[in-house]
Write a structure and sequence with these properties.
Lambda_DNA-bd_dom_sf; DNA binding; about 0% strand; mainly alpha; about 90 residues; 6 helices; Helix-turn-helix transcriptional regulator; 434 Repressor (Amino-terminal Domain)
Length: about 90
């Protein structure tokens, strides 16, 4: 599974767990519904870190936890490594 698919899977899983519709998540995270739908559909090639942070805030989770959980579902890239992010910087945003 590609990392962007893992992001989509995680967003949907968190919405299900919390009983949120995509519309409600878009509303509480202040992210346009069209942007959220593009991320879910895999049409957003690389969702921005600020967008993901806003969605995580709306879900009440940290970006670091979200990325960590998504990484467990993403398959390694050709280099054999999964994408890594500077979690400390992401948490400060």
């Amino acid at each position: 599974m590609e990392f962007r698919e893992a992001i989509s899977r995680e967003l949907l899983a968190h919405c299900r767990e919390q009983g949120l519709t995509l519309g409600r998540l878009a509303e509480i995270s202040n992210v346009p519904l069209s942007t959220l739908k593009n991320i879910i559909a895999g049409q957003s090639r690389n969702p921005g870190i600020l967008t993901l942070k806003a969605l995580c805030n709306g879900l009440g989770i940290t970006l670091a936890d979200f990325i960590s959980r998504a990484e467990t579902f993403a398959s390694p890239r050709t280099s054999g490594k999964t994408p890594q992010y500077n979690r400390e910087s992401a948490e400060k945003e």
